[in-house]
Write a structure and sequence with these properties.
Elements: H1 16-35, H2 57-70, H3 80-91, H4 96-103, H5 111-114, H6 119-135, H7 139-149
């Protein structure tokens, strides 16, 4: 498979729990190869079907849709997981540059397409504006506006 960009070749940090799950998966696969008298090599694909053949794209799609259905989520393309990742990164406090790097975007502007603000974050933002208006402390609003206009 051709990579989209040079950045696609760069190392990607993974959560330790995912690294451990991948190690266990690889060990099970090595055992499956050995049970068939085959030698597993590091070049072997990590995700294979029960016959130890590359996963069929149609079956992969069906498995993804079944996973979404079990989770009570409407049908989406697998690519939607990138949007979810960006949204989760923002919701947990990651800065825009980090989100850009994780998603391998060229600019932080792409986050406008990929990352959705949570309802909680939007509610918090409008509550802060309302509080400034009610308290009469318009300097918070006007100061931000002056900076934005400069």
């Amino acid at each position: 498979m051709a990579l989209k960009s040079k950045a696609s070749e760069e190392p990607m940090p993974l959560p330790e729990i995912l690294v451990e799950m991948l190690r266990r998966h690889r060990e099970r696969q090595i055992q499956q190869f050995a049970a068939r008298g085959w030698k597993w090599t590091p070049e072997a694909q990590l995700f294979l079907d029960s016959r130890l053949k590359p996963i069929d794209g149609k079956r992969d799609w069906e498995n993804w849709q079944a996973l979404l259905a079990r989770a009570g989520v409407k049908r989406h393309r697998l690519h939607a997981a990138r949007h979810t990742t960006g949204t989760f990164l923002r919701a947990t406090g990651s800065d825009p540059r980090t989100i850009k790097e994780v998603l391998r975007h060229a600019t932080t502007a792409l986050q406008d397409v990929y990352v959705e603000e949570s309802m909680e974050a939007m509610k918090d933002a409008v509550e802060r504006v309302a509080a400034a208006l009610i308290d009469g402390d318009l300097s918070k609003i006007m100061g931000a506006r002056r900076v934005a206009l400069q």
